[in-house]
């Protein structure tokens, strides 16, 4: 009977890697403590950047309740703010994959430990661990699938990733609070390679070592490094993007010339045709002054301003600053009947589908002198894929709020 | 009996544990109700399934592969890591980017205007490079070991 038990995962003798040990787990745990905290904070910032409390069209989680307690008016400066926070969120998430996998590997014997629960407290902790492990994997998997545009998950990405993050973080906080003191203590008490007295993770019958604990950590670090090198370039242009050889929006630019930079959704994918964007196109500007119809020629005749701004996507990729040129949104607000005190703005696109074909901008975003209805980029007319005949460009806003193929601007009523 | 001891006897852990766990479940419940508001069954399957697939499929698969590798390299245990590390890194890249590498992600090309065809080739090239680096490392190490051994030995010709 004992020999059979020694061969089931529930017996400590079954797990024989000499790498496992509480100090090895503690190192990975502390890395994750810092890394996941950064992921959570940057994730909450990204959620705020959409201004979900501004208008129902921006809000993909109308039932959020108190989870949106911290929401604030997303600023327009520095203009690279969202590029930084979201690039950090996604790239760090990718880089932490091997750390998470190694951490889970290091504690896998505990999953099979018997009895299933020693006490009520222990039972609750194990349920909490299911939320922790399931939640971590759920967040990483939905995130990684979303940036590859592989929407296999059961529902819309926004609510799944947002509410999932809160479920996960609830378990993560408790786990960190209960375990961090122990992690710090065991790391202070001796070297990584040494046995720790009463170590519940150390194998009682370890096999001959093939790699040291330090070596195993180096392999995890190498995994993170390889992932970093092959993906970080998607937040930059030029040679760095070419280095992002495995990441979406890495390797190549979609074209050459002034409009050759990265595209989130092509005109073809959005169902926008030349019939929509040709000579017959006009922009409707609505406000207290009524409904104004402006052709592209009318818009070109207005004062033109320039702004150097990036496109930064929720998927984590971004471009360097592009030189946009067009009409200030604040000038259009004056036309719409707001001579002083610029209001919020509802933007509508000609695109046939997509969760953000209508999007709202807050007054601070409309007021910013760099916020344009762009007609040109890098010295040429916009290309169809970048929103010809006219698109919105707002500093520090997530890419989807920079609406392309604009057909209507409604000032004041969101 | 002090209340601390009562909690510990009935609950099995300290009072801080009880408070933290209760707070955690309350918050998780608040968010969880919202998470499950859509396709509840689908979300539960994904949430629990992710943990089960990881613990009962992914870990056993790579652990068995590793055990197999170690058995093959039984007589030369020093060589294991020169195979293990490149396989692990290559597998990690495949795990993270499989929708693009295997061209499953059908929305990618029409949306971005970029071809996903580059990813499979790039992954294979990276894998080749990882093995080359590993082989180079092994050669350097072997040469160094040999030199050290011949230096340590007295010359045979005298």
TrEMBL record, chain A:
Residues 277-411 form the Oxidoreductase molybdopterin-binding domain. Keywords: Membrane, Transmembrane, Transmembrane helix. One of its GO terms (molecular function) is oxidoreductase activity. CDD domains: SO_family_Moco. Gene3D superfamilies: Oxidoreductase, molybdopterin-binding domain. It comes from the Bacteria. The keyword Membrane applies. The chain crosses the membrane at residues 24-50, 88-108, 129-148, 160-178, 215-233. This is DMSO/TMAO reductase YedYZ molybdopterin-dependent catalytic subunit. The lineage of its organism: Bacteria, Bacillati, Actinomycetota, Actinomycetes, Kitasatosporales.
Automatic annotation (TrEMBL), chain B:
The chain crosses the membrane at residues 16-37, 43-62, 82-100, 120-140. It comes from the Bacteria. This is Lipoprotein. Keywords: Lipoprotein, Membrane, Transmembrane, Transmembrane helix. The keyword Membrane applies.
């Amino acid at each position: 009977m004992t020999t059979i038990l020694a061969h089931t995962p529930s017996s400590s003798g079954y797990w024989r890697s000499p790498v496992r040990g509480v100090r090895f787990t503690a190192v990975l745990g502390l890395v994750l403590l810092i890394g996941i905290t950064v992921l959570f904070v940057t994730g909450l910032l990204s959620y705020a950047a959409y201004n979900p409390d501004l208008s129902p069209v921006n809000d993909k989680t109308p039932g959020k309740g108190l989870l949106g307690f911290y929401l604030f008016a997303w600023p327009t400066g520095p203009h690279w703010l969202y590029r930084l926070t979201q690039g950090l969120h996604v790239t760090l998430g990718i880089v932490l994959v091997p750390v998470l996998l190694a951490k889970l590997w290091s504690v896998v014997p505990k999953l099979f430990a018997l009895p299933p629960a020693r006490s009520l407290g222990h039972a609750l902790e194990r349920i909490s661990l299911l939320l922790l492990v399931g939640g971590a994997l759920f967040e990483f998997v939905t995130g990684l699938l979303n940036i590859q545009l592989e929407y296999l998950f059961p529902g819309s990405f926004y609510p799944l990733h947002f509410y999932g993050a809160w479920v996960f973080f609830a378990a993560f906080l408790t786990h960190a609070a209960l375990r961090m003191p122990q992690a710090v203590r065991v790391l202070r008490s001796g070297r990584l390679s040494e046995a720790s007295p009463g170590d519940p993770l150390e194998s009682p019958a370890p096999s001959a070592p093939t790699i040291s604990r330090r070596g195993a950590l180096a392999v995890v670090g190498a995994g993170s490094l390889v992932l970093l090198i092959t993906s970080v370039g998607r937040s930059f242009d030029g040679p760095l993007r070419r280095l992002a050889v495995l990441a979406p929006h890495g390797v190549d630019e979609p074209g050459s010339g002034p409009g050759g930079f990265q595209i989130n959704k092509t005109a073809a994918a959005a169902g926008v045709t030349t019939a929509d964007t040709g000579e017959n196109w006009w922009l409707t500007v609505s406000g207290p002054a009524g409904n104004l119809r402006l052709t592209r020629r009318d818009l070109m005749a207005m004062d033109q301003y320039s702004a150097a701004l990036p496109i930064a996507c929720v998927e984590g990729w971004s471009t360097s600053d592009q030189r946009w040129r067009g009409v200030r949104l604040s000038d259009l607000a004056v036309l719409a009947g707001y001579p002083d005190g610029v209001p919020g703005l509802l933007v509508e696109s000609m695109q046939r589908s997509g969760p953000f074909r209508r999007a709202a901008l807050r007054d601070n975003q409309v007021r910013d002198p760099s916020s344009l209805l762009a007609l040109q980029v890098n010295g040429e007319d916009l290309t169809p894929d970048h929103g010809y005949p006219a698109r919105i460009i707002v500093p520090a806003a997530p890419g989807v709020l920079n609406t392309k193929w604009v057909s209507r601007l409604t000032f004041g009523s969101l | 009996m002090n209340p601390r001891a009562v909690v510990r006897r009935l609950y099995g852990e300290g009072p801080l544990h009880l408070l933290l766990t209760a707070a955690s479940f309350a918050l998780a419940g608040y968010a969880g109700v919202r998470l499950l508001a859509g396709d509840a069954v689908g979300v539960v399957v994904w949430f629990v399934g992710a943990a089960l697939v990881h613990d009962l499929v992914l870990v056993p698969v790579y652990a068995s592969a590793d055990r197999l590798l170690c058995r093959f390299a039984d007589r030369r245990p020093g060589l294991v890591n020169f195979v293990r590390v490149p396989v692990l890194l290559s597998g990690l890249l495949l795990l993270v980017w499989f929708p693009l590498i295997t061209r499953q992600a059908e929305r990618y090309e029409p949306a971005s205007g970029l071809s996903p065809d580059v990813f499979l080739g790039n992954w294979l090239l990276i894998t080749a490079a990882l093995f080359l680096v590993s082989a180079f490392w092994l050669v350097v190490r072997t040469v160094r070991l040999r030199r050290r051994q011949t230096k340590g030995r007295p010359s045979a010709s005298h």
